[in-house]
Amino acid sequence: MKAHDGMYIDGAWRPAAGTDTIEVVNPADEQVLGRVPAGTAEDVDTAVRAARAAFPAWAATPPAERAARLGALRDVLTARKDEIAETVTAELGSPLSFSQAVHATVPILVAGSYAELAATYAFEEKVGNSTVYQEPIGVVGAITPWNYPLHQIVAKVAPALAAGCTVVLKPAEDTPLTAQLFAEAVAEAGVPAGVFNLVTGLGPVAGQALAEHPDVDLVSFTGSTAVGRRIGATAGAAVKRVALELGGKSANVILPSADLAKAVNVGVANVMSNSGQTCSAWTRMLVHAAQYEQAVELAATAAAKYGDRIGPVVNAKQQARVRGYIDKGVAEGARLVAGGPESPRAQGYFVQPTVFADVTPEMTIAQEEIFGPVLSVIPYEDEEDAVRIANGTVYGLAGAVWAGDEAEAVAFARRLDTGQVDINGGRFNPSAPFGGYKQSGVGRELGAHGLSEYLQTKSLQF
Fold it and tell me: Which of 173, 245, 369, 408 is catalytic?
């Protein structure tokens, strides 16, 4: 799609306050796709004022009508699915097949789930002699990352609109074209002017202005834990609500009774998906010592198949970061069994699918989020050791458990300090709450739990 040279504010594309722009680069061939405005605090203020003005009418709109607008949005996204996939592939570098299957499809499912939920959610209930109302919190500042550009937008905007909130979105600067396409879809779906607004720009400028704006009632942020801390501190000073979906270092625990080959192959696929740029990726594979060398061999063989099947990472900075972690793993004594730090191509920000063995839980690559196609395989001695290792990071976003008996897997999963666990390869559920324990965040996204983040409670006693 052709980049817009303005901001989507109050139902129209409007000129930016400044003249600075951001280049959008295809990470596969390093060619410039276009330029978008680098928004300023003035642009953010204009968008927030539009959202504030639109809030009373949208909050008073019957839930059934809000549901209808979300249903229309789902239909527009469905009609433009091919364009969405092509846009994500161009600015993120994702293989087109993955963009079609995941980047374009999952947001449609999520938008549809909120269209249904908005029509059925109990926004009021009787509790004894009280009537309890769930009311929209107000203006939402949504700050989204580049790794799943449309999904992360829909996962914030759809529940906010379903709740009756209005939104100002600041998308990641690497993938703004997908956000502009979403703004077009919002307009086509008939969402009233001012209910959704888009400001493109850099995080330290536009993102910070949005998080600090006194007329923003809630900040919903997905990104690094470091930035999440700053947003949390800013919001805390203003006693402002936040929803933070942050980093992860998820464990894939393979118990001795599991189908080892299946668990390893699915685990490797999980890490390599989206070039490893998934906050919930199972980047630590925990295997019983008796099965360890077999698992390492299986993982190395599986990873080798992804050499020409995954796309690049998003930009040169991210490529250097991931390669630096691979170097760090080697320097700290981990055994490289697949991939390595060398770039596999002369052009583009590619990283080899990489697997490390002989990783100890204390190593940097076992503790820090790499955000690239890098897997650490870690041995454990018994179940207690596996629980200790799995819970032994500052993160607690996701994970997986494999066992021959489902009850055994569930019992182990209940001991994990993490927000979401897949049992024996459980399927993605767009209505299940997603979010983390510990430094992986505050709050939940998706489903009814995601909707509740954008609501506040009032009770009337009779």
Answer: 245
